[in-house]
Amino acid sequence: MNKKISLRLREESQDQHRDAEGSGFMRCFIKGALDRGTYAHYLSVLKVVYDSLEKQIESRKDHPAVRPVRFTELYRSKSLEADLAFFGEPGTGQNSRAGKVYVDRIAEVASNAPYLLSAHAYVRYLGDLSGGQILKRIAQKMFDLQEGVGSAFYEFPAVTDINGFKNGFREALDNLPVSPEEADALVREASTAFSLNQKVFAELEPVLIAGIGQERFASAQKETAH
């Protein structure tokens, strides 16, 4: 019996997922050591990525392996726009080299193998529904945010049962009409997506160091090291 796609996605991309979570930028985030300016840069790059992903999903919404994971209630572009209005749009997302590589990859798979968009949807949206909820609490404390202000990116007002929704998302992935070879490619694409995220984090590190100082940056790495 073939292993479910959702299980393979989790198991076979865990090394890349761990690498992304262990980046210097994310270590600082988890420790509440981001400055507002760097956080705005981060949101600005995310806005470019989500704009692209959501545009490409919409352009391929009738594809049989895209339609099942087209959950418009998860779209983040408008939420990011609201948060950037709060923090101040630095306008750097369009100039991000790592963001461009990410966007170019999304466009490439949309043109050549649309079913692979499901892997990018999995990495982004299930991450937002999972670890993103922890990051929301950290961001609220870090920037002294009131509920519903400046944290729209992490909020899903149309999703009343997050765990149930995640299960439905995984079920949709498991039932995608893809061949075994396409399932293999989809799992590999998830690893690629995590690596693209890591490149965004790496690009942000010099910005973060300039914002909080080398000493504080280095301290956060030690405190979160396992």
What does the secondary structure layout of this molecule look like, with pairings?
Elements: H1 5-12, H2 14-21, H3 24-30, H4 36-59, H5 77-87, H6 97-112, H7 117-129, H8 131-142, H9 162-174, H10 180-212, H11 214-224
Summarize it.
The chain is mainly alpha-helical. It is 69% helix and 0% strand.
Helix content: 55-70%
Q: How confident is the prediction overall: mean pLDDT?
A: 94
Strand content: under 5%
Helix/strand structural class = mainly alpha
Order of helices and strands: HHHHHHHHHHH
Low-confidence region ranges: none
CATH topology: Heme Oxygenase, Chain A
Number of helices: 11
Please give the radius of gyration in angstroms.
17 Å
Number of strands: 0
